[in-house]
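Incident log, support desk, overnight shift.

02:14 A customer reports that sequence design results differ from what the structure should imply. Their input is reproduced verbatim below. On-call engineer (initials T.W.) acknowledged and began investigating.
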């Protein structure tokens, strides 16, 4: 039995974006609200900024943009 589930590719979101669409894209990929990813990046940003900002910038570079 092989089913082909509907799977969204990991892409930066064009509709659900605040800065670059990273959190919106992660939310669409994992099927949860982008709010939770934004909250996680804000919490990671609190202890000096480097963990949250560095991870966000890395994901911005790695995750491709959405194709229209």
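02:41 Re-run completed on a clean worker. Output:
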């Amino acid at each position: 039995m092989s089913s082909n589930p509907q799977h969204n590719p990991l892409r930066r979101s064009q509709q659900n974006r605040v800065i670059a669409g990273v959190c919106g894209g992660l939310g669409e990929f994992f099927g949860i609200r982008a709010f939770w990813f934004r909250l996680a990046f804000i919490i990671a940003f609190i202890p000096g900024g480097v963990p949250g900002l560095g991870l966000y910038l890395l994901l911005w570079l790695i995750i491709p943009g959405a194709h229209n």
